[in-house]
Amino acid sequence: MIGTVTEQPPRQPPRQPPRLPSGRPPDTAADRRARGIALARAARQGDTLAMNDLLDQLIPYVSSICAPIALSSRQDAVQETLVAVFRALRSLDEPEALYAWVRAVAVREAVRVARRDARDLPVEPIDLPAPGDPQLAADIGDVVSRLSPEHRAVLVLRDVEGLDEKEAAALLGVPEGTVKSRLHRARAGFRRMWSS
After folding, report:
1. Higher confidence at residue 18 or residue 185?
2. How far is CA 50 from CA 41, 102, 156, 175, in A?
3. Range list of H helices, the chain
């Protein structure tokens, strides 16, 4: 067909990301927390789909807590944390406290799994990085992995999660003085290993 022109559909303007009534883009940390709390409320009332969605939503949060404490056993620690949350969610009186409660469970399980695995796998002296090796000393993960699970837990709660000594003591179930002592030893050990 000579001379026929096919008609092109009109160009659509680029789609803008949706906005919430507050003008914020969706899926901020506050939105995720609010969604988690809403899912916790529904799950506490027996909604199994809400429980499944809640556990899926908690995985990144739990992983961020368990990874620096349990190290190579982080997947086991995350799994144990999610099982504990699943079993005990109905005992959570205030759904607004969901993330603080989950943080406490995650720390407890990560320390427990790290202790268990440390007993099961003895460390051979050849597995430890040599002092003075600049490549290994520069790796923060390597330095942190050489700390005990209790010291890693205190560092995560204070320096990553931003809790004070009193809050960390309550989460770990130890006196506040023990948290201060562990934190001092953990930081001193970290500095010593970092500079070696």
Report:
1. 185
2. 9, 16, 29, 37
3. 29-44, 48-70, 74-88, 98-120, 134-137, 140-145, 149-155, 165-172, 176-195
Query: What's the CA gap between 52 and 47, in Å, rounded?
Result: 9
Contact 40, 92 (CB under 8 A): yes
Residue 148 · residue 119 · CB < 8 Å: no
Tell me 126's DSSP state: G
- Answer positive or negative: Cα dihedral of 62, 92, 80, 166: positive
Q: Please tell me what DSSP assigns to residue 1.
A: -
* pLDDT 10s digits, 151-177: 888 888 888 788 888 988 888 888 998
Query: Is the pTM higher than 0.85?
Result: no
Phi-psi region of 13 (alpha: psi -120 to 50; beta: other; left: phi over 0): beta
* Max mean pLDDT range (118-127, 139-148, 177-186): 177-186
